[in-house]
User: Which sequence fits this backbone?
């Protein structure tokens, strides 16, 4: 898939509307259009990286930014104390539907284990 066809890259470029809840130079976060919990936010690097396994050493500072964004969003949504889940699916068998690495921030309800 070319980056120009990636739906998340198009959201980053503001070609497709999204409910953006956080943005900095490297990260974009927006509400999931099919939420699985009361809080369901996708946090993505603006740089196109298809899968977790495609991350390089040079991408690690951006992944740190993703985690910082998750902390900010959890505090903003007041779920930092009650708990939240962060999920990264890698590949089709894991349920990755968009080939652009993305982190699901899920909160606002009780979760069970194991998931799925």
Assistant:
């Amino acid at each position: 898939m070319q980056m120009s066809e990636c739906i998340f890259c198009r959201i980053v470029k503001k070609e497709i509307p999204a409910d953006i809840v956080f943005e900095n130079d490297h990260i974009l976060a927006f509400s999931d259009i099919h939420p699985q919990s009361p809080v369901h936010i996708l946090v993505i690097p603006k740089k196109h990286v298809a899968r977790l396994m495609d991350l390089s050493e040079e991408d690690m500072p951006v992944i740190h930014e993703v985690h910082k964004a998750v902390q900010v969003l959890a505090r903003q949504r007041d779920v930092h104390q009650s708990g939240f889940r962060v999920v990264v699916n890698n590949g089709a068998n894991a349920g990755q539907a968009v080939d652009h690495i993305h982190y699901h921030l899920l909160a606002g309800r009780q979760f069970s284990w194991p998931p799925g």
